[in-house]
Amino acid sequence: MSSMTPHVAHVRQLYRRALRSAFDWSTTREGFRQSAVHIRYMFEENRDVHNAKRLAEIIKATEAKLAETAHPEPYRYPTSPFGTKFERNPAVPPHIVENGLGDYVDPAKAFGKFERNFVNV
């Protein structure tokens, strides 16, 4: 694993944030792909800039643009925290596990272990 300079790590993080923002605004995969190609082109334009002051200006402008174009409701994976299915199936309360659901009787407890006859099914 190669070590990255802090600048490279920061630019990489900006690139990923830009891609995620583009994904949030896209309605189709093709639209996202066009945005991703455009973002890559914009980052490649500044690849050979080595002046520290110019780099700081570019990074500051990129962060401002990302903040300005942030989606109000970014996409979250369904099972991640704050996702649409996060903790959708909560654990069964202990009193139901111990006592059952009222009139329901578990056949395994009531009749013991039984084998199913597949001949008359």
Write a concise synopsis of the structure shown.
The protein is mainly α and 121 residues long. It has helices at residues 6-25, 29-45, 52-68, 94-99, 107-111.
- The helix/strand class is mainly alpha
In terms of DSSP E residues, the strand content is: under 5%
Mean pLDDT: 83
Q: For the terminal residues, how far apart are their CA atoms?
A: 60 Å
Percent helix, as a range, is 40-55%
Largest sheet: none
Number of helices: 5
The total of beta strands comes to 0
Shape, please? elongated
Radius of gyration, Cα only, in angstroms?
27 Å
Low-confidence runs: none
Order of helical and strand elements: HHHHH
Structure explained in plain terms:
The model has no long low-confidence stretch (mean pLDDT 83). Helix content is 54%, strand content 0%. It is mostly helical and 121 residues long.
Quick tags:
121 residues, 54% helix, mainly alpha, 5 helices, single chain
Topology:
Layout: H1 6-25, H2 29-45, H3 52-68, H4 94-99, H5 107-111
Helix pairs in contact: 1-2, 1-3
